[in-house]
Amino acid sequence: MKTMRINIAAVLLLLLPVSLSPQETESLQSVYIKTGKYFEVLNDLNRVIALNPHDASLYVRRAGIYNDLGEYGKASHDADYALQLKPDYPDALVIRGAIYCNTGNYEESLECFGKAIRIDPRNHTYYLGRSVVHERMKNYREAADDLTNALELDSQNKSLYESRALLYIKLGEYHAALNDFTECLKIDPEDMAMHKQLATVYYLLAEKTEDAVLKEEYIQKALEEFIIVERLENL
User: Fold this and answer.
1) Alpha carbon distance 109, 105 (integer Å)
2) Which among 48, 109, 195, 209 is placed 20 to 30 Å from 73, CA to CA?
3) Cα 233 vs. chain centroid, distance in angstroms?
4) Strand boundaries in 83-227, DSSP class E
C-alpha cells in the first residue's frame, strides 16, 4: 500500500458547517475542488475570518489548507486556536491529528483521532484518518480494523474497500483482499484498476498454493481478469 499523506482540506471544505452566505461557501468550495488553487481559497478564508473571528470551523478549514501546503506551523496554530474556541471539537482534533501524522508524531496523531472518534463515533472519515496513521506505523491489522469500522458506516465507499484490500495483501490475507476487490467491482464493474488488482491477487494465490489444481484455477482466473482489462482498454 502506498504511503499516504493525510490531505484533509478538500474533505473539510465539503463537510464542515460554516457561518457563511451561500455565495461565500460556494466560492470556498468550488475554487479548491475544481481548480485546487489554495491561495485563492486562503484569501477568501482570511477575509471571512476577519468578519467571523470566533467561528472555529473557519480556522479548521484554513488549518486543512496549510496542512496540505506543508505549512505545519501555521496549520498547528489554527487547529489549536479552533480548539481554544471550541474545546473537544472533533473536526479540529482530526486536523490536529493529520498535522501530527504528517510531521511524524504518530502517537500524538492516534490520540487526536481516537478522541475525535470517542466524541463522534459515527463519522467514517475519522476512522479512515486513523487508519492512515496506523498504516504509516506499519500497524496493518489496526489499519484494516479501522477501515472495517469505516465501512460499517459507509458500506458503498469503493475507496475504503480498495484500501482495506491493499492492507490485506500486506497481511498476506489474499482471500480477504479478493473479497474486497470484488466488492469494488460490484460498485463499479468496469473499474479497470480493480480487475488488474484481482489478477495480481490470483497470481499471488497461485504462487502460494502447493495444490496443482488450485494453482491452475487461480492462474486461469488471473488470465480472465486480464482479458477483461484488455476489453475495457479497447472500448
Assistant:
1) 6
2) 48
3) 27
4) none
Per-residue pLDDT tens over the stretch 122-164: 999 999 999 999 999 999 999 999 999 999 999 999 999 999 9
> Is 78 found in the same domain as 4?
yes
Shared domain for 177 and 66, answered yes or no, is: no
Specify whether the CB–CB gap between 175 and 204 falls below 8 A.
no
Which residue range forms the structural domain that includes residue 194?
A: 173-235
Specify the 3-state DSSP secondary structure of 189: coil
User: Which three cell numbers, joined as nine digits, stand for 139?
Assistant: 500497524
> Quick check: 31 and 152 in contact, CB under 8 A?
no
Task: Please tell me the pTM assigned to this model.
Answer: 0.83
Number of domains in the chain: 2
Q: What is the tens place of the pLDDT at every residue in 223-235? A: 999 999 999 999 8
3-state SS assignment for residue 145: helix
Distance, CA of 102 to chain centre: 14
Q: CA-to-CA distance for 58 and 52, rounded, in angstroms?
A: 8
Phi first, then psi, for residue 231 (nearest 5°) are -65, -45
96 plus 203 within the same structural domain: no
Query: In this structure, are residues 58 and 49 in contact, taking their beta carbons and an 8 Å threshold?
Result: yes
* Residue 208 covered by a domain: yes
First to last CA, the chain: 29
For cell 501555521, the residue is: 74
Confidence of residue 222 (pLDDT cuts 50, 70, 90): very high
